Fold this sequence. Notes:
InterPro entries: PH-like_dom_sf, PH_domain, Rab-GAP-TBC_dom, Rab-GAP_TBC_sf, Rab_GAP_TBC_domain. The protein is an alpha+beta fold. Among the domains are: about 1-100, PH-domain like (Roll); about 590-705, putative rabgap domain of human tbc1 domain family member 14 like domains (Helicase, Ruva Protein, domain 3), CATH 1.10.8. The chain is about 65% helix and about 5% strand. Helix 10 (about 380-465) packs antiparallel against helix 11 (about 470-485), helix 15 packs across helix 21 and helix 16 crosses helix 19. About 15% of the residues are buried.
Amino acid sequence: KLCGYLNKLGIKGPIKTWKSRWFFYDENKCNLLYYRTAQDINPLGSIDLSSASFDCKVENGEGVFEIRTPSRTFTLKAISKQAMMYWLQQLQMRRWEFCNTQGRFPVGSSQLVNEPLTGRTSRYRVDVDNEDFLPPVKTPTEAVGLKAASLPAPQTSTALQNISLKHPWTEIQNTVYNICSSKQLWGNNGNVFSFSEFQEHPENPDEEQEAEEGTPEDGRMDSRLNWVRRARRMNSGFPNLPEELSRERNQMDKVSVLQQQILTLTEEVKSQKELVKLLHKALEAAQQEKRVSSMYLAATQDKDRLELVRHKVRQIADLTSRLEALEREKKELEQTLTLRDSHIQELKEHVQLLMEKNHAKQEVIMALTEQMARELSDPLQEANTITTETLYKQQEEIVHLKDDIDAYKTQNQFLNSEIHQVTRLWTRVAENEKALLMKCACLQARNCQMESKYLTVLRKLQEAVPGLPSSHAELVRNLIQEALEWDVKEEAEEALFFELTSALCPCSEYDEYGFMTVPDYEVEDWKLLAKIQALEIKSNNLRSQEVVEKPLRDRWNSVGELSPSAELKALIRSGIPVEHRQRVWRWMVSRHCRRLPDHYQRLLHQSRSTEHPACRQIELDLPRTLTNNKHFTSPTSQLIPKLRRVLVAFSWHNPAIGYCQGLNRLAAVALLVLEDEESAFWCLVHIVENLMPADYYSDTLITSQV
C-alpha cells in the first residue's frame, strides 16, 4: 500500500497553513484519500489521479510538490527530498497502471473500425517503455507504509491547528470512533499499566457493527478496518510488544513510555474539549428553539399564541435595531482603524527613513574605519586577508551553485518523465477518439445505404401507385411523406455527431465551396429521388474517407516547401485536398505569371474613373454565374462585388480580349479557392494568357469552336 504522512497546504482567504494529513492510495478508483490521522475511518477528501499531473519546483522549497487536477491544485510537502521523489514516482506509476488496466486506449488502426470496440480494448496491452528519465528512488520506510502508520502523528503548535474546519461532521465521526476503539483497547479492568498484547478484534460485536455502519460504502472498508485497528494498536500509548521484550525493559523505559502517553492523551483531551464546547453551543441554540416551540404549542387560545408571536416580533425588531447600531459602530471602528493604520504606516515610513540614514552613517563609519586600519596595517597582510575572505566566499558560492544544479537536474529529469508519460496518455486518448469517430462514420454510411435501399423500394412503389388499391396507395403516400420528413426530425439528433465528424466526413447539402451536392427538384414526385441521391452521395463520401482521402491527406501533410519535381506532379494529379489547394494554386500561379506590384490597384482606379465598354455585358453575366453555388445566388453576396472588380480589371489589363463569356466562371472559381481578389485576378491572367491557346477567348470564339 502507498500511504504515509504529508503536509497539505490549506488556504483560507489570505491565511495559508500547513496541516499534517495521512494520505492513502485507493487503487480501485485511482484516488488519493487523505485523513487527519492514520487511525481515522472516514476521509476528509480525495484527489482524482486519473486525470491529474504532477510538478515539483525548486523555488517552492525542499520536499514541496504539486498535484494538478482539472478542478484544483493541491500543494503537498514531504519530510525530505527523497520522500518527495518516491511519492512522485509512485503516483506516476499508479496513474499509468490504472489508465492501462481500465482499457481506455484501444488500438487506433483504421483496419479495426468495423470490429466491436470491446474486442479491441480487450486485446490491447500497453508495453511499458524502458526510458528511465529518473532512477528509481529507494523506499523511505520511515515516511511511508505501515511503519509510518505506527509512528505518532506529527505534532502541531496548537490543538486545533490540525483539525479540518471544513469537515466538522467527519471529524466528530472519527473522534467518536477513536474513543470507542480506545475503550476497547483499555479492556474491562481499566488497568493503565497492562502491557499484555491486545486482541485483534473487539470483544463486543455490537460496537464492531456500529463502527462498520459508519464506514463509507466503497467496498474497501472491511480490510481498512482491520488495517486501522492494527495501526492503532501500534500507535497507542500502551506498548504492544512481545512478552520477551517487555520483560527486558527496565523501569526508565516504562517511565518514558508513560510520559509520552500522558503528552499524547493531554493533546487529545484539549482537542476533545474544544469539540465539546462547539457541541454545547449548538445544544444551547437547539434547547432555546425547543423552549420557544413548547411555549407556542402550550398556548390553548389563539390570543395567547398571537401574543407570543408579537413578543417575538418585538424581539426581532429590537435585535434588528441592535444589529444596525452595531453595524454603525463597526463602520466607525473601521474608519478609526483605517486612520490609525495610515498613521502607523506614516510612522513606519519615517522609522524606515531614519534607519536608512543610520545605516548609511554606519557604512560611512565602517568604511572610514577600514580605511584607517588598512593605512595602519601591513599592505601585504591586508592583501592576504582580502584574498582569503574572497576565496572563502567564492567556495561557499560554488557549493550553493552545485546544490542548485543538482536540484534543477532532478527537477528536469522528473518533469521530462512527466511530460513523456502525459504525452503518451494524450496520444492514446486521441487515437481512441479517432477510432471511435471512424467507426461512427462507417456505421452512418451503412445506415445511409439502408435508408437509400428503403427509399428505392418506396420509389418503385410510388411508380406503381396507380395500379394499387386505394388503401395501399394511401399507405405508400404516407410512408413517402414520412421519409421526406426524416431530415427535419433527425437534424437535432445528428447535430452533435456532425459537429464531431465534420473534419472526417464533410457531407451536407453544400460542399466546402458552396456548390449544391444534390439537385433541387421542384417536381413533387422527384423529391424522393433527390433524397436517394443525397443518401448515396453521403454514403460514398463516408466510405471514401478512410480508403482514398486519408492516405492522400497523409501524403500531402508530409510535403514541406513546394518545388518542381516528378513526385509533386504525380501528387497534384492524384488530387489536392481542400486544405492544401489554396497554397498549391498560389504557388503555381506565382511560378508562371509575373506579378506587377500595384498593377491590380491601378486597374481598379482606372475602372472607377473611366467606364469600360464591357461593363454592361459583365453586369448581365453576374447573376448567371454559378447558379448552383450559394455564394453567387444572392445579390447581396460578398463575392459578387469582388467578381465584378476582377472582371473589369482584366478587361483593362487585356484590351484585345476585354471580356468574353466564360471568364466569369473562371474568375468565380478562382475567388472560391484563393479567397483574395488580387490573387484571383492573376490566376485568371495565367489561365487566359498562358494555359489556354491564343484567341480562345475572343468575340468570334474561333479557337473554342475548333
